[in-house]
Design brief:
Structural class: alpha+beta
Order of helices and strands: HEEEEEEEEEEEEHHHHHHHHHH
Shape: elongated
Strand order of the largest sheet: 1-2-5-8-9-10
Largest sheet: 6 strands, antiparallel
Helix content: 40-55%
Number of strands: 12
Number of domains: 2
Distance between the termini: 100 Å
Radius of gyration: 31 Å
Strand content: 15-25%
């Protein structure tokens, strides 16, 4: 008898869906109610993760244990397998990754997946990613399509009337995806191997049109230097960039790479070559870099070099004054700032020199 009732229920439901589908195809596009669709996305490095879902509202209803049953539940029709919650309304909630990722500590290839959750009475739970993301909700859930299941701990949260996904606590490599509804929060940690992805993408891009420009090869090598990865590939790229354009930027990047690789003598030789061809702005920036690293004497040497090459630059003398002041050499700082003021500096430089001179007690 129960089997016959279920069969009749499914038949009636299919008939209703068939009529509704025919009506939808013939009618105009109208807003979806009462659970509108939504999409959220987040970029981590150069990778993107997005969630497409429908947003039911609480509407004063008891949610956990009733509207969303606890544990795994057998559906009234479709698959006879116990099913998790579809983590939204209507069709599957779909999560998509542009690159391979780790989700709740599990390896996930790039692509689209159905996203499901389980909540238990004690707020323990599970997150499930299914390779079948096209089915309608969890009514046709098939466990053999699971990519993985992982334990999560559901949290208490401020009341959220409409079910909402958001990304929080982003870092260079990770972000936390959370589902907020009623007074619960379902957290899932997502991680991308950002440096590996960037370097693999760089290698691919440099096989195309970008591979004919020194700027692209230089930027790839610079990323490797800044993040201390892929030195061998980066040296090849920067050497190709230098072959096209031997300038301060390229030589400085190569020097930095060599230094990280422990080739100190070679790095210093290349650095000297870079300083010879550097512009005033580039030398000035390098001086401030050394100053920020606490290398006061080295910074002063560079700032002096700038004033020697560009003696009529008020900015060069102002920067040298800052270097002396930072080291605590008051006498030379005052001399440098006064020299800057004697060269009819632009307003921003004039203001800076006067500010320091007042701080040093050399101007009222």
């Amino acid at each position: 008898m129960q089997k016959n009732l279920t069969t009749r229920f499914v038949s009636v439901l299919l008939a209703v869906l068939t009529c509704a589908n025919a009506w939808a195809q013939a009618g105009i596009t109208t807003p979806r109610t009462p659970s509108p669709g939504a999409q959220v996305s987040q970029t981590i490095g150069i990778s993107n993760v997005s969630v497409n879902y429908s947003r039911p509202s609480v509407k004063g209803r008891p949610v956990w244990g009733e509207l969303v049953p606890y544990g795994w539940n057998v559906q009234a029709f479709g698959s006879p397998n116990p099913a998790p919650w579809r983590a939204g309304a209507n069709e599957n909630t779909v999560i998509e990754f542009s690159h391979d990722a780790k989700v709740a500590g599990q390896n996930v290839p790039a692509g689209k997946y159905g996203l499901f959750f389980v909540i238990n009475k004690d707020d323990s739970g599970e997150v499930i990613l299914s390779k079948d993301y096209r089915s309608w909700g969890n009514f046709f859930y098939e466990p053999s399509q699971d990519l993985f299941r992982a334990k999560i701990q559901v949290r208490s949260n401020a009341h959220t009337e409409m079910l909402t996904y958001e990304f929080i606590n982003a870092t260079k490599n990770t972000v936390e995806l959370v589902l907020n509804w009623e007074k619960k929060q379902f957290p899932v940690m997502i991680e991308f191997a950002v440096d590996d992805i960037v370097m693999a993408n760089a290698a691919e891009e440099l096989q195309g049109a970008k591979g004919f420009t020194w700027q692209a090869m230089s930027s790839a090598a610079n990323y490797a230097m800044q993040n201390k990865v892929n030195h061998e590939a980066a040296i090849v790229w920067i050497d190709k960039a230098i072959a096209q354009q031997s300038n301060y930027t390229n030589l400085n990047i190569k020097s930095g790479l060599l230094k990280q690789m422990g080739k100190t003598a070679e790095a210093e030789k290349i650095q000297k070559e870079a300083l010879v061809v550097a512009t005033e702005v580039e030398l000035n920036q390098y001086g401030y870099q050394l100053l920020n690293e606490g290398k006061h004497d080295d910074a002063i040497k560079i700032m002096v070099m700038v004033t020697d090459r560009f003696p009529q630059s008020a900015n060069a003398w102002d920067s040298l004054g800052e270097a002396y002041a930072t080291k605590g050499d008051k006498e030379n700082a005052i001399k440098s700032f006064k020299k800057s003021l004697s060269l009819n500096p632009p307003k921003n430089v004039k203001d800076n020199s006067e500010k320091f001179l007042k701080q040093l007690g050399a101007m009222k």
